[in-house]
Please model this.
Amino acid sequence: MSELSETLNRRGEAVTRRLDALLAPVKGPRGRVLDAMRYSALSGGKRLRPFLVMESARLFDVDPDHALHCAAAVEMIHCYSLIHDDLPAMDDSDLRRGRATVHKKFDEATAILAGDGLLTEAFAVLAGPRCHPDASIRAELIAGLAQAAGAAGMVGGQMIDIAPGRETLDLAGITTLQALKTGALITFSCEAGAILGRAGAAPRQALGAYARDLGLAFQIVDDLLDHESTPEELGKPTGQDEAAGKATFVGLLGVEGARAKAQDLVQQACAQLAIFAQKAKLLEETAQFVLERKT
Amino acid sequence: MSELSETLNRRGEAVTRRLDALLAPVKGPRGRVLDAMRYSALSGGKRLRPFLVMESARLFDVDPDHALHCAAAVEMIHCYSLIHDDLPAMDDSDLRRGRATVHKKFDEATAILAGDGLLTEAFAVLAGPRCHPDASIRAELIAGLAQAAGAAGMVGGQMIDIAPGRETLDLAGITTLQALKTGALITFSCEAGAILGRAGAAPRQALGAYARDLGLAFQIVDDLLDHESTPEELGKPTGQDEAAGKATFVGLLGVEGARAKAQDLVQQACAQLAIFAQKAKLLEETAQFVLERKT
Model:
């Protein structure tokens, strides 16, 4: 097993343990929403965003426990967004990570509340001293995460994704949509390491540029996988965007064009890491992993 | 017009202006979610929670602009909770503050996103330096608001309200439900003033006790109004809990019993304010207002 996959697995398990501790089950009728939050947050997944938080933090010798805590908050935001995006009123998906989506396993109202609960809890996690002893660092993380998650980020991206005119977006339109819907949280994940490490302007900018290229490459590969894989391989429905007549990177660039674009972006992303030299080796390999992943 | 109603009106208008500035409209397809957020946040209402933030802050001579900023964040949380509670999968309400609910005016997906957007933006507002120059104060506000809004507060209360067994809750069960669903944010509103003012333990405890009694009285009066008013008077559907066979304070205590309980709580709430003497006059009058309100 490569160093990257070993590190991905090890950190993924650490994030799951931290989420398990942060989202302790409770008895009584209120317990149902915690059960749904745990069902989503402890269901695995690649844990790519937490990995990016932790690996970016490592560049600046951040206390790994602080980075892990922040990584758990970022994963809560990711999970909330999946729960709400899967709802019948949104993408109406029954399958996620190979299991029933939260509204299928529980019900729609519980899924809405579980998403709300995870979104809220993410900010509670970042606000507490275990995240970082310096409150100004915590406030900067919260401001950054709220920006990435809100109407100027993920919420705005999802709005564009379901608003009238979605079918006929051009390449610039799709790129903006994805920069908000998936790019913003991937970018924040890398920025979080820099914030925790009180990094200077130059490394911050380099990491931000890496993350933006990586996020777009990630989404293009998502479109490719959606086009070429089966629901069994991906653990979620495939071809929904195409069936709905929505513009995608594959639709606009073709399979070969999309793959070439993703390759270019990954190369460009890795070039941004030059100032970190050997220390950024795993971030480089992560970009390659994003390109070659099969799920 | 009494000093209280004049102050309520003046501060309500200031909160609306601040929300208008914080939720600036944007062009393009993403603009739709901002429009829905503004439709909810700028639609009026009593602005009771923002008033409590500002009036509690005044006890400790907090900069009114800091209090107003924090008050706007609290109102965003209140509005988000109304949008999501009104959704078809939850209470399925078409009318709120005398107007179509967000999912009726826009659509269900936009309403889910508008709620998510307001919830997220509330934390962005508290994380920024305009809320308070000291980041440790901001982090304490965020931790408190997240606790009040999340699974241990409003989200947990709403879960109990829609979970199986809701119909047969006893008085203790209903009291817990309401302490989470509506009490937690009312209590945080008063605590926020104490946090902004770096208040000591005794005034904090007094304000907290006032807020808990006030919150419960507020909810009992809500049940009374729901029982006795028309939808035209309240600007929202009435009698839904009773029609659904849900236990309510009025159902368990009777009209006279519920009214007597609310009166007791308001008297007790006001007694908690003794240590603030004349400075808490408007908070005392607010408790009376909550008891006598007609909407």
In short: The longest strand of chain A covers residues 95-96. Chain A has one domain: 3-292. Chain A has a mean pLDDT of 95.
